[in-house]
Amino acid sequence: MAVIKGTSRSKALIMGQESTSTNQLQSTKGSKDTPEKELKFKKYKCQGCAFVYDEEKGFKRRYPPGTKFEPLPTFMCPVCGAAKDQFHEYHED
């Protein structure tokens, strides 16, 4: 990895990790390896305010449809600000 001029090595490493994570987080919907009908999307509910993150729909521009929740390095509830660990898998009954 190249160190970006004017940044510390640790910051450059973090930037490199973030770009790798971003590539890994790209939507898997319609990928060549997995037919779209075989994808299983989950929902995750915030324990603080009941906001539901739906992997199939994503969330606004930051998380396009098909973005899986588990591999996200961080996530903050857009309603109450709860951390990712406050979300649990949700099944509609």
Could you explain how this protein is built, in words?
The protein has 93 residues and is α+β, with helices and mostly antiparallel strands. 17% of the residues lie in helices and 12% in strands. The protein has one helix at 9-24, and strands at residues 43-46, 52-54, 87-90. The protein has a domain at 41-93: Rubrerythrin, domain 2. The radius of gyration is 16 Å and the shape is globular. The protein contains one helix and three strands; from the N terminus they run H-E-E-E.
- Rounded mean pLDDT score: 74
Please state the second-level CATH architecture of the domain at 41-93: Single Sheet
SSE string? HEEE
Instruction: Return the CATH class of the domain at 41-93.
Output: Mainly Beta
Strand content: 5-15%
Number of helical segments?
1
Backbone shape: globular
**DSSP helix fraction:** 10-25%
Q: What is the structural class?
A: alpha+beta
